[in-house]
Amino acid sequence: MVENDKQTEKKIFEAATEVFMEKGMDGARMQDIANRAGINKSLLHYYYRTKDRLFNEVFEMIFGHMLKKFAPVFDADLTLEEKIRFFFREHITFLQKNPRLASFVLHEINRNPERVRNFIGRIDIGRLWTDIEAQHKDELKKSNIRREDIPQLMTSIAAMSVFPFAARVLVKSILEKMGYDFDDYIEKRKEYAAEFVIGAIRKEKGIREKA
Amino acid sequence: MVENDKQTEKKIFEAATEVFMEKGMDGARMQDIANRAGINKSLLHYYYRTKDRLFNEVFEMIFGHMLKKFAPVFDADLTLEEKIRFFFREHITFLQKNPRLASFVLHEINRNPERVRNFIGRIDIGRLWTDIEAQHKDELKKSNIRREDIPQLMTSIAAMSVFPFAARVLVKSILEKMGYDFDDYIEKRKEYAAEFVIGAIRKEKGIREKA
DNA sequence: GTCTATAGAAGGATAGAC
DNA sequence: GTCTATCCTTCTATAGAC
Question: What is the CA radius of gyration of chain A?
Fold first, then answer.
């Protein structure tokens, strides 16, 4: 049945996504994936040949999905501050729905650098970069952000959003021991992170004007 | 030879630390560890019984070492701003010397939450927390930082320092494609991160004074 | 396309000689 | 304490029936 083919392949892919996200490539077992998909182990190989191929397809999907979440930042017709608020709202909500994603991607990236380079190679980052610079030339100048500071700023923004999820278990443990609720903390972070970054940027201007 | 006992045990421990940091618990092979230590596989079991025990000892050492790096923040006789500058200088330098540490710890933490809870259980976090609050009561009030914002601030500080290393391969790939040097970026981050956070905090005051 | 059975390899762990 | 040899389990992958 052709109907069933797609069904099965999809079920396998979804089961594999779950298991790989939970255990990572090295910790995942083909048997677990088969069980979760409700099919036989051999079928995995019938559809995907090897564990490696299956993992690669899953990883590329997830990593691509994650990078896509950054896209609006590069073309939205918004001011820099609006973009920052927009980004944190969307991105943290995305990670909220996929709490294991950050940790999974970071681990697998470091485990196999080649994969990342392949991926990065396919993107025209130079283009995105100059777009950002062009779009916000005035704002960057007003905030006294030099070209060489852009990597610092970009990674700081990513850090504010990703870290709480990447260190989820640790942060959650500590917060709960102090009587805070993790979900509530994340919800509040959408706004906090935006104001934090905007404040940091405004300050660059302030300090240098005084000097 | 008693001399050699310590020698061997230490060599094993060091080799294990390297291999576990590189491959993670699931990806590490006892054979690799034996090879790197220049001894036989059986000796690993002679000294550490199982892979699990060996891993646990390594993990506890690394995790403990990492947490210790946060200690000065809680008792140093410095102002809040001085502490922030001190922290980033010390902590980023520490991660610079152990570039795989962040990624390793984050992965293993999420893979086995129980381990973290054990560890956290042993620390009197409540005490540390109230110390921080007491030490900087006036400064926190001046910057209009409410008690409920402390988790946001603390995780933001950790994020600024840890993220570039946790996402090392990705950040490095992108920066290099744009003509930046990663090591240079990290070196500059020691100061950038501090000023970024201090700016963000000052701003909380500013915004609310205007309103 | 899906299953059962099994090959084949790898890895953790132990026994026993030295 | 250290090595060689080997056991035993687990896991990926394939062969072959239906």
Answer: 21
Euclidean distance between CA atoms B84 and A126, whole angstroms: 34
Residue A173 in tokens:
């443990």
Q: What is the pLDDT of residues A145-166, one digit of tens each?
A: 998 999 999 999 999 999 999 9
Residue B59, Cβ neighbours under 10 Å: how many? Answer: 20
The whole-angstrom distance between B89's CA and the closest CA on chain A is 15
Q: Does domain B2-58 have CATH number 1.10.10.60?
A: yes
Q: What is the domain partition of chain B in residue ranges?
A: 2-58, 69-210
**What average pLDDT score do residues A38-49 get?**
98
Q: Which of residues 96-135 of B touch A (CB under 8 A)?
A: 100, 103, 106-107, 109-111, 113, 116-117, 120, 125-126, 129
Cα–Cα distance, B177 to A140 (Å, whole number): 22
Q: Do A107 and B107 touch (CB under 8 A)?
A: yes
- Average of per-residue pLDDT values in chain B: 92
Q: What angle do CA B183, B168, B37 make, to 5 degrees?
A: 95
Mean pLDDT of A41-47: 98
Of A155, A180, A192, the CB nearest to B163: A155
pLDDT at B92: 98
Residues of A in contact with B196 (CB under 8 A): 152, 156, 200
Q: B69-210: which CATH number, 1.10.10, 1.10.357, 1.10.20, 3.30.70?
A: 1.10.357
CATH class of A2-57: mainly alpha
Q: Among residues A117, A148, A161, which one has the least CA distance to residue B168?
A: A117
Helix, strand, coil share (%) of chain B residues, nearest 5: 85, 0, 15
In this prediction, residue A209 carries a pLDDT of: 45
Chain A neighbors of B166, CB-CB under 8 A = 106, 163, 166
- Closest-CA residue to B102 (of A174, A98, A107): A107
Nearest DNA or RNA nucleotide to A9 (CA to C1'): C1
Q: How far is CA A22 from CA A29, A39, A60, A62, A184, in A?
A: 11, 19, 16, 13, 23
Return the residue in B63, B173, B181, B201 with the most chain A beta carbons within 10 A, the one to mutate for interface testing: B173
Give the distance, in angstroms, between residue A57 CA and nucleotide C7 C1'.
27
pLDDT at A34: 98
